[in-house]
Design brief:
The chain is built from no helices and ten strands. By secondary structure, the chain is mainly β.
């Protein structure tokens, strides 16, 4: 399976998971396209936008920052993030992300079963 960015639709999302502001998202995988993966997306947060800290009761999620900088959250703990930084929210935990910079913050998110 080959995925070309020019063939994938972008979506504007607002207030992701109770966060604030706008984001541009493209989904690279739909459910069942890859074993064990529920979703894989590139999301670009506008300056000041956030993904609200939210729980993962039964799934796990990886965030990988591609560009920009901001603040990551894991179980209520805040930490600085930048390009190349990643963190995993295991089942039963919470996480989020805020773009506190003047430019865009792009990250790749993968949700697994």
């Amino acid at each position: 399976m080959i995925k070309k960015i020019g063939n994938m639709p972008f979506q504007v999302k607002e207030n992701i998971r109770g966060g604030s502001g706008k984001a541009l998202a493209v989904d690279y995988l739909a459910p069942q396209e890859m074993a064990g993966v529920l979703a894989a997306s590139r999301i670009t947060l506008e300056p000041g936008a956030s993904v609200g800290e939210h729980p993962h009761p039964n799934t796990e999620e990886l965030y990988l920052v591609l560009e920009g900088s901001g603040t990551g959250f894991l179980d209520g703990e805040a930490f600085d993030v930048g390009p190349g930084d990643a963190w995993i929210c295991k089942a039963g935990h919470t996480h989020g992300l805020k773009n506190g910079s003047a430019g865009p913050l792009a990250f790749f998110a993968v949700i697994t079963q």
